[in-house]
Design goal:
- By secondary structure, the protein is α+β, with helices and mostly antiparallel strands.
- About 25% of the residues lie in helices and about 20% in strands.
- The strands form four sheets. A four-stranded mixed β-sheet has the order 1-2-4-3. It has a two-stranded antiparallel sheet with strand order 5-6. A two-stranded antiparallel ribbon has the order 7-8.
- A hairpin with a 6-residue loop joins strand 9 (about 165) and strand 10 (about 175).
- Helix 1 (about 15-25) packs parallel to helix 2 (about 60-70).
- The longest helix has 17 residues, at about 215-230.
- It is elongated.
């Protein structure tokens, strides 16, 4: 029959496309249970290529978007599976019995995700799941660093990062720029050129204000910062 109660889609890969083809056909199940990749963030829309030789899985948000186009409502999730009900049945039998509007945020917590975050000096860190789930291999932070050598890591926006002394034009006093630990000879030139290309010297904004202080350097600084943010984002 074209109309039936339940279908379960669990093929470890092209689940999205099987659900897509089902919903674009004449078949109309009342309830759909479909697998998603539990490591993907809830706000990520990821659809794996339409190729059964690829095993990526798709995100929960991608499946919710697909289901809503064909008038199916998300009503529950497990760690790996999402359950959708026809909207007409949801309105008739389910909606009145739950005290909230079902959504991904209310129905699902990502418990198997790996989160990547950055430290100011360019170090990459991870939190959450620290292994490849289906391979049982640890994810080592030292293997994911873009700046491979610790000596190459420093905060590029430290005022005076070039190492030159800055003269405070407002009060005539000298302030020594922040000095970093000595770098190996092979990385000094590379690091300096890299930081110079992406840095904006914020030292004009780090000086004590006074009525006689020349603000032209601050204006130049703000213009350079705006240009950098416009070009590179933040």
């Amino acid at each position: 029959p074209n109309n039936f109660e339940l279908i379960i889609i669990d093929v470890d890969g092209t689940d999205y496309w099987l659900m897509h083809d089902l919903l674009t056909s004449s078949f109309r199940p009342q309830v759909i249970c479909v697998e998603f990749n539990p490591s993907m963030p809830d706000d990520l829309i990821y659809i794996q290529p339409r190729d059964d030789g690829i095993r990526n899985g798709s995100s929960l948000s991608a499946l919710v978007g697909l289901a809503s186009k064909f008038h199916y409502q998300l009503v529950e999730t497990t760690c790996y599976n999402a359950f959708f009900v026809e909207e007409s049945l949801f309105d008739r039998y389910v909606k009145r019995d739950i005290p909230f509007e079902p959504s991904i945020e209310r129905l699902h917590d990502v418990t198997m995700g790996t989160n990547l975050y950055q430290l100011y000096d360019g170090t990459l860190k991870i939190s959450g799941c620290k292994k490849l789930l289906w391979h049982r291999i640890p994810i080592l932070e030292e293997n994911i660093q873009m700046l491979r050598h610790e000596d190459d890591r420093s905060f590029p926006f430290v005022p005076g990062a070039s190492g030159q002394n800055k003269v405070n034009q407002c009060n005539g006093s000298k302030s020594r720029a922040v000095q970093h630990q000595p770098e190996p000879a092979h990385s000094v030139e590379h690091s300096y050129e890299m930081f110079k290309s992406i840095s904006v010297d914020m030292s004009p904004y780090c000086q004590m204000p006074s009525p006689s202080c020349d603000t032209s350097e601050q204006k130049k600084c703000s213009q350079a910062l705006l240009q950098t943010l416009t070009r590179d984002g933040f």
